[in-house]
Amino acid sequence: MLTNIISISLGAILINNFIFSQFLGCCPFLGCSSKVDTATGMGLAVVFVMGLASAICWVVDTYILVPLGLAFLETLAFILVIAALVQFVEMFLKKSVPSLYSALGIYLPLITTNCAVLGVVLLNVQNHYSFIESVVYGITGGIGFMLAIVLFASVRERIQFSDYPECFEGFPICLVSAGLLALAFMGFSGMSVFG
Amino acid sequence: MNIKKQFKEGLITNNPVLVQLIGMCATMAITTTLFNGVGMGLSVLIILTCCNVVVSALRKIIPNEIRLAIFVVIIAGFVTIVDLLLQAFIPALSESLGVFIPLIVVNCIIIGRAEAFCQKNTVGASFFDGIFQGLGYTCVLIIMCVVREFLGSGRFGGGLIDIANGFRFTLDGTGGGIQIFPADYGASILNLPFGGFLTLGTLIAVMQYALKKSAKKKELAEKEAAEAAEKEVEE
Fold first, then answer.
1. Across the interface, which of B80, B105, B197 has its CB nearest the CB of A176?
2. Average confidence score pLDDT of chain A
3. For the ranges A173-177, B66-70, B143-147, which has the lowest average pLDDT?
4. A170, closest residue in chain B (CA to CA)
5. Which of A88, A91, A192, B9 is deepest in the core (most CB within 10 A)?
6. Would the ipTM clear 0.95, i.e. be above it?
7. Among residues 79-108 of chain B, which lie with CB inside 8 Å of chain A?
8. CA A187, CA B8: separation in Å to the nearest integer?
9. In whole angstroms, what is the distance from residue A183 CA to residue B187 CA?
10. How far is CA B225 from CA A29, B17, B212, B233, B235, in A?
């Protein structure tokens, strides 16, 4: 059980990093990574929402959709759960932790359309994870996302001062440097955890 | 009418991936074989066109405050339909695209077009917008696939084209493609995630270069025309 959890977490954070090897959540990864501060905020919000969404969607899938034979509605049900969850978290933070709420700002509602969140929930179902495994996969997947976005934001802050062809200005140079980071993360891919 | 203009916008000047810079996750993830690229592009084209038509038909009924939730439900409905159809009729494609088919729900292209175009335009215009934007997306996917496959493994049309028993198209993903040079000489790094980032980055850079150049040309032509007009006035 424990080894299983450790192997899921290491896999989600390093070996099969959500951004660098599965390409989930690239839009916010490229959109919100111009400063380290906002990247950290976004990363924290994603960890939180991915963990919660994994838990709730597992319950919805196992106790509502599957018994009723509605498994084909998974995509529809999950995106609604995620949208409602994000809205709820937003309201809750606004009332009880206003400092975190203002730090996250616009990024919180944008998480609804982050494909890492919907992706982790769908992968949980595909891999037949148990409740605990789903939550662990959600949280560690979020941590992997956060690691990636914070690392990339620090790289981007330096790109501003470097010299590159004019036509690569803006997005292209970011994509190329993200590719180099992905290449670095490839180094983990040979690792196998506990067989 | 302005169908021509819409065509040009969707494919070039307002291309969803290369100019609007949206919907990039799937673009980088699945463009490893032509089979995947064409399949994904056409799925998005169909879903986008259907959603555009429905959203623009309902644009006067949908309350403004909850429009995004309604868009998402409409999109998720069509995505589920396409997902189930693919599972039933082209299982190989469904298997190889995996989680990226249901993830079309959160593909920014579709919700972006619903928000930016269909809300303000007629059903007909939205229909063509869906087709042309979808075509623009498909073209980018195809270019990415062709480049990555050719440089990565020296092949063209992997999964889609079968030349073992004469030239034919396959829908079960078994076609070996046309081997142009031996796979051992390919830069297999392009088949890795790194290749996705690099190819898309370069493609966008080329696009930026071309758009800038054509804008400059236009500016120059306008300047010349203005100078000529001035000269005429002087004379």
1. B197
2. 86
3. B66-70
4. B205
5. B9
6. no
7. 79-80, 83-84, 98-99, 102-103, 105-108
8. 42
9. 14
10. 45, 34, 20, 12, 15
Tokens 């990565």 — which residue?
A: B152
Choose from A76, A81, A164 for mutation: most chain B CBs within 10 A. Answer: A76
- A56's tokens: 């709730």
Residue A44 tokens, joined: 């924290």
Tokens of A80: 């609604």
CB contact under 8 A, B196 and A174: no
Positions in chain A short of pLDDT 70: 105-106, 192-195
Q: What number of residues does chain B have?
A: 235
Q: Which chain A residue is nearest to residue B189, measuring alpha carbons?
A: A183
- Residue B73 in contact with partner chain A when CB distance is under 8 A: yes
Chain A residues with CB inside 8 Å of B82's CB?
none
- Tokens 């039933």, residue located: B88
Higher pLDDT, B162 or B210: B210
Most confidently modeled range among B42-46, B211-215, B220-224: B42-46
From B208, which residue of chain A is nearest by alpha-carbon distance? A167
Place of tokens 């976004």: A42
**In the structure encoding, which two tokens stand for residue A68, read together?**
């009723």
